[in-house]
Design a protein that fits this description.
The chain contains seven helices and five strands; from the N terminus they run H-E-E-H-H-H-E-E-H-H-E-H. The chain is mainly α. The protein is elongated, with a radius of gyration of 20 Å. Its cofactor is pyridoxal 5'-phosphate. It is an enzyme of class 5 (isomerase). Its EC number is 5.4.3.8.
């Protein structure tokens, strides 16, 4: 999920990590169904034809996916500013949603990395599975469905990340924040019953 969402070098470049193995999903194919992996020489030399591990796939090297991937990676390389713009949009969205939550008395926990964000219905810091379990699932469920009523589709669980894209406009962000005001009020009323 963090392959090219946070930086051209992935999250590993942001955190200064040199992994043994990197796995990339559909972004490597411009959103089409493809994956890729790469790693340290001694690991990669285990893959055939150099090594004993056979790897193949029906869609391996699919021309359409490879063309889409090359185009996507070229566009990202030519527009490094896209990552900062996405992060700024995501920060604005999270700040706006937080403000709406505070208006009705909800203390939410937000996490953001580049264009990825998460929102937890808890007043406790969330840093692992145990702390995430303190989140109010019923509140999120009400919030999620209220957002759908307003035409905003979020991941159906607060334990999944949300994603900003270059296609999201300032108007989209404003509409999402406005929808969240309605949704938080609905959560407040439903939980008060």
């Amino acid at each position: 999920m963090t392959g090219f969402r946070v930086a051209y070098g992935g999250a590993q470049s942001v955190f200064g990590i040199k992994p043994d193995l990197t796995c990339l999903g559909k972004i490597i194919g411009g959103g089409l169904p493809v994956g890729a992996y790469g790693g340290r020489r001694e690991i990669m030399e285990m893959i055939s034809p150099a090594g004993p591990v056979y790897q193949a796939g029906t869609l391996s090297g699919n021309p359409l996916a490879m063309t889409a991937g090359i185009t996507t990676l070229t566009l990202l390389a030519e527009s490094p500013e896209i990552y900062e713009k996405l992060a700024q949009k995501t920060t604005a969205l999270c700040a706006g949603i937080r403000k709406q939550a505070e208006k009705v008395g909800f203390d939410l926990q937000f996490h953001q990395l580049g264009a990825m964000f998460g929102m937890f219905f808890t007043d406790q810091p969330v840093y692992d599975y145990e702390s995430a379990k303190t989140s109010n699932i019923d509140a999120f469920n009400i919030f999620f469905h209220a957002m759908l009523e307003k035409g905003v589709y979020l991941a159906p669980s607060q334990f999944e990340a949300g994603f900003m894209s270059a296609a999201h406009s300032e108007e989209d962000i404003a509409a999402t924040i406005e929808a969240s005001a309605y949704a938080f009020e609905k959560v407040r009323l439903e939980l008060a019953k």
